[in-house]
Amino acid sequence: MDLSNAQFTSIFHFATEQGRIIVNLQYINLAICLGFFLVVVGLLAFVIIKFRQRPGDGEPHQSEGNTKLEIVWTVIPAIIFLILGVLTGVVMSSVNPPVGKRQPDVIVIGHQFWWEYRYPKYGVVTANEFYLPVGTDLMLEIRGADVIHSFWVPDFGQKMDAIPGHPNNLFLKPIREGIFLGQCAEYCGSQHSLMRIIANVVSQKDFDKWIASQRAVPAMPGDQSSQHGRELFMSNTCVQCHRIAGTQATALVAPDLTHIASRKTIGAGVIENNLENLAAWITNPQQFKPGCLMPNMRLSKSDAHDLAVYLENLK
Q: CA-to-CA distance for 92 and 89, rounded, in angstroms?
């Protein structure tokens, strides 16, 4: 799959304002830890060298307690911890402000084993790959549809649990364009490791174009293979799980396929999205993602091909 342009994934390679704030606090923590390390190692080396035993030395002078020293090594760490506690509180308040009456910009729903993304302000629903505009303050509402999942794109900073019946909020202000990869960070079943996230941060202009394309109803198929594929889709159990806008397929159990051809991958990042792979996935998804909830459709090779042709025209 063509993810060669994806950004290097690291918590220190932040792509949001919230990530920057968290990383800056982490740098302060690391600096303090490094300072303690250098002081301790320096004092230890000094003591080892200066007070090492030499030939003829007698029993060292025995002393117990040093009130001033004990006060110093108690007060200094206490002050440092107090400062870190205050800074941590400021960071927590900055990255997780009060929700109030604010409505989510994106609703993220974790399923076994894929991600659903809803844009309630635009009426757009998609799956596994989502888009955000750079430079915009956003609130994501994180939900779980079945078991506990955890939404985590390291470059965005925080991870947030997706808990059934208990929505959580994640605030983001993307500051850098690019493709950012993530992963479900909470074991949620057999295919937990293949529940991947592809986040696209684009300019406001490109985001508006993407929204417009996602709101458009796909045109009716024109060629014979696509027409046959559409008939197969509507006459089989596909319609009991999937939705395609403008058709009688309105189920919301499995990923929305209205614009599946615009996605880079199939199966939440498992394989590249192309005609050959999609036909193979339709034929037997278990060979790519054992334990996923899509059954073997038991279609002939030609029927699977025509169904894939239809879906690959849904851009």
A: 5
The whole-angstrom separation of Cα 230 and Cα 126 is: 20
pLDDT tens digits for range 31-76: 999 998 999 999 999 989 988 888 877 787 777 888 888 899 899 9
Q: Please tell me the distance from the alpha carbon of residue 131 to that of residue 44, in angstroms, as a whole number.
A: 53
Candidates 253, 266, 287, 147; CA nearest to 198 is: 266
As a whole number of angstroms, the distance between CA 103 and CA 169 comes to: 10
Tokens for 159, please give them. Answer: 């991870």
Whole-angstrom distance, CA of residue 37 vs CA of residue 29: 12
For the chain, domains (ranges, CATH) are 224-312 (2.60.40.420)
Give the C-alpha separation, 119 to 208, whole Å.
Answer: 12
Give which of 257, 256, 274 is closest to 265, Cα–Cα. 274
- pLDDT surpassing 80 at residue 173: yes
Return the ∠ at Cα 214 (arms to 192 and 216), rounded to 5°: 145
Compute the distance between CA of residue 35 and CA of residue 178 in angstroms, rounded to an integer.
36
Tokens of 300: 């002939």
Structure tokens at 74: 């108690």
Torsion region of 165: left, alpha or beta (phi above 0 gives left; psi -120 to 50 gives alpha): left
pTM metric for this prediction: 0.87
Question: What tokens appear for 152 in the block?
Answer: 């985590």
pLDDT at 8: 67
